[in-house]
Each structure stands twice: as structure tokens, then as C-alpha cells.
Amino acid sequence: MTVIGDTAIPRIPRGVRLSQDRVRNRWILLAPERILELDEIAQAVLVLCDGVRDVAGISCELAKTYHAETPEIMADVKEMLGDLAAKHFVVL
């Protein structure tokens, strides 16, 4: 797993696309010869991975949205983005 700092700026790389599958009513990440079905939380995080916001900013935004503590959200965001970065679905 990739270790991610608070100031890392995640984005979805070229060749990977965040998309809504309207037929099955789900969000997915599409990459060459790969597809990853996302849950509601993963979709909320990835929508904020715009290449401008850092992990701390993303975590603060999600903490406000979900009425949760920022440190708890940040730990989960870092873990998820680390897993996705290791699989090349996200770059930092």
C-alpha cells in the first residue's frame, strides 16, 4: 500500500475514468481492461480528487458532509487512496 501524507494531491490519472453506470445505478472506475465498482463513500472521495484539493481538504469536506471527526475520516481516506494508488487507479 502507498503511504499518503496530508498534503498529497490525489487525482484520477489519464486513462482512468470515474463514471456512473446509469443502467445498474452504480458508480465505477474504468481503466484499460479493468473496472472497479464503487460504494457510496468511495464515490464521494473520488469526486473530490480533482488534482487541486489535498488529502486534508478532501477529509475536511467529507467530515462536514458526513458529520464526522476529521482525523477519523482522514485515516480512512488515506487508506482508501493508498490502496487505489497501488492499483494505479489514483495518482498523487
Question: What does this protein look like?
Answer:
By secondary structure, the protein is an alpha+beta fold. It is 40% helix and 17% strand. It has helices spanning 40-47, 55-66, 70-86; strands at 17-21, 26-31, 34-38. Strands 1-2-3 form a three-stranded antiparallel beta sheet. The model has no long low-confidence stretch (mean pLDDT 94).
Count of alpha and pi helical runs: 3
Strand tally is 3
Helix-strand sequence: EEEHHH
> How does the helix and strand content classify structurally?
alpha+beta
Spans of at least 5 consecutive residues whose pLDDT stays below 50 are none
Radius of gyration: 13 Å
Q: What is the overall pLDDT average? A: 94
What share of residues are in beta strands?
Answer: 15-25%
Order of strands across the main sheet = 1-2-3
User: What percent of the residues sit in helical stretches (DSSP H or I)?
Assistant: 40-55%
Separation of termini? Answer: 13 Å
> How does the major sheet shape up?
3 strands, antiparallel
Shape: globular
